[in-house]
């Protein structure tokens, strides 16, 4: 496991089946219980994945999102990408070519404690002149 800034990078095991997924989840679960967890799962070592592995990934994503965090996948092998696509969950995850790219994607957002001085939208021209019908 590596920690870079507030982003946690963990490498998945070679086999993501029921037993390995359970062991991995036991290690990751305390990290997912933090406020706003930012997690990158490095899939570069994954050689095989079954439905239990996909279920574990979905559970981790759900736990991170419950706490206003996010989970991203990196270096997903083609064989695992096919499994995610066949189970129709591939669109739920942001997938990056490398763990470094996934970590950088978290850093494009401003820290949570900083208030915005300007609205995120631009006021439209002439809308202030509209009257209530």
What does the model show?
This protein has 133 residues and is an alpha/beta fold. It has a single domain, classed as 2-Layer Sandwich (Transcription Regulator spoIIAA). Helix content is 36%, strand content 19%. It contains 4 helices and 7 strands; from the N terminus they run βββαββαβαβα. It has a 5-stranded mixed β-sheet with strand order 1-2-4-6-7, sandwiched between helices. A two-stranded parallel ribbon has the order 3-5. It is globular, with a radius of gyration of 19 Å. The model is unreliable at 1-5 and 113-130 (pLDDT under 50).
Mean pLDDT: 83
Main structural class: alpha/beta
The profile of the biggest β sheet is: 5 strands, mixed
- Indicate the CATH architecture: 2-Layer Sandwich
Low-confidence stretches: 1-5, 113-130
- Order of strands across the widest beta sheet? 1-2-4-6-7
**Alpha-carbon Rg, integer:** 19 Å
Q: Could you give the count of β-strands?
A: 7
The domain tally reads 1
What is the CATH C-level name?
Alpha Beta
Reading the helices and strands in chain order gives EEEHEEHEHEH
Principal-axes shape call: globular
Our estimate of the beta-strand percent is 15-25%
CATH topology: Transcription Regulator spoIIAA
How far do the termini sit from each other?
60 Å
Q: Tally the helices: what do you get?
A: 4
Q: What's the name of the CATH homologous superfamily?
A: STAS domain
Summarize the amount of helix as a percent range.
25-40%
């Amino acid at each position: 496991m590596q920690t870079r800034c507030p982003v946690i990078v963990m490498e998945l095991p070679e086999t993501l089946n029921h037993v390995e997924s359970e062991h991995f989840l036991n290690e990751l679960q305390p990290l997912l219980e933090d406020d706003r967890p930012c997690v990158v799962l490095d899939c570069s070592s994954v050689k095989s994945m079954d439905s239990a592995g996909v279920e574990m990934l979905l559970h981790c994503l759900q736990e991170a999102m419950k706490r206003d965090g996010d989970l991203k996948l990196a270096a997903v092998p083609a064989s695992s990408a096919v499994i995610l696509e066949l189970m129709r969950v591939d669109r739920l995850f942001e997938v990056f070519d490398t763990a470094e790219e996934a970590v950088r994607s978290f850093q494009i957002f401003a820290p949570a404690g900083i208030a915005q001085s300007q609205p995120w939208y631009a006021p439209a021209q002439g809308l202030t002149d509209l009257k209530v019908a």
